[in-house]
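Entry for adenosine-5'-diphosphate complex. Fields follow.
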Amino acid sequence: MQYILAINPGSTSTKVALYQGEEEYKVKTLRHSIEELQQFQTEEEQLKFRKEKVVEFLKEEKIDISSLAIVMARGGLSKPIESGVYLVDENLLHDLKETPRKHASNWAAKIAFDIASEAKVNAYIADPVVVDELSDIARMSGHPKFPRVSVFHALNQKAVGRTYAEKLGKKYEDLNLIITHMGGGVSVGAHLKGKVVDVNQALDGDGPFSPERSGSLPVGDIIRAAFSGAYTQQEMISMVVGKGGMSAYLNTIDAKAVEEAAQAGSEAELKVMEAMIYQIAKSINSMVVPLQNKVDAVILTGGMAYGKWFTGKITEYVNHIADVEIFPGEDEMWALALNANQVINNKITPKEYGYTEF
Ligand SMILES: Nc1ncnc2c1ncn2[C@@H]1O[C@H](COP(=O)(O)OP(=O)(O)O)[C@@H](O)[C@H]1O
Ligand SMILES: CCCC(=O)OP(=O)(O)O
């Protein structure tokens, strides 16, 4: 029996899955707490930890590495590229190691490559977080030195957009959708007929705050803090990614626990949840502009979309725009398997990442 192995490290979780053709064999989500992640001092240490989790999963499932047909990984913060499937090669691995923007997705291709090499098969990424379809106007930030860049949950947003279109018997490329992924990071994408023409830079750029990120911050105050001598560069970056947002206010990245506490009447948790909901709703509203006021649906997805109270509150703010559809969790593992099958069955030709200067 041949298996597709899919590997998806997120900021708060490691997701691993095995498929046989298009049939799901096993999907596992490991959630990581702040305490668990804070033990790691270096990128290498955390890469090793995440890889061990994947190897343990294969052992638990008694999967011999020689039975893998292909290994698929979520793509990380390499250079901006078009949507599609890419072979994991030395150029891609180089950029994922050297990229200044650190995120768990950067490790996926390396873990996949190592396992695939042992299995003597190929590893691929699909719709990485740097898929770039921004319109020229959305690319302008307000200063030519700092153009806006596209960093978001491209794999899940596109997969969920296609699933929604299929449900309607329509094509994703014929719809205008505002898709919001709410995980460790939050991205709000304006999908104009199949292209994400605007989206917040969901890692260290802009947009709503999230379980582990600050989202947009007052820039002048940040510059003054950075030059005050009170903080190292790493401390400043951590305030934005890792220890920003909910983590900064409440010292947890577990939105489920925070939502439960808020509902049980805890004021501190309620205040933070309400502010995050408010910021997400404001971002969703802002995406009506790139969609030229014609929106077919607003879609909420990602781990936090499991929260009924949470999605209910966002829905109240945004249901005047269009129908609100909720896809809890993510279609990422399925999307990776689907792309794997297309490669195996020669339905698509994987792209080559190539080499350019950062
Ligand atoms: N049932 C649930 N209800 C509310 N929030 C949830 C639920 N399950 C997971 N979450 C929250 O979703 C967030 C993680 O989302 P996920 O999309 O899995 O993130 P990532 O891929 O970034 O690790 C966490 O803050 C987690 O607590
Ligand atoms: C870097 C953009 C993707 C992202 O934020 O992923 P997670 O929510 O899984 O951390």
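NOTE: The pocket of LANB7ZPL (ligand 2) is lined by residues 10-11, 103, 129, 151-153, 183-185, 202-203 (CB under 6 Å).
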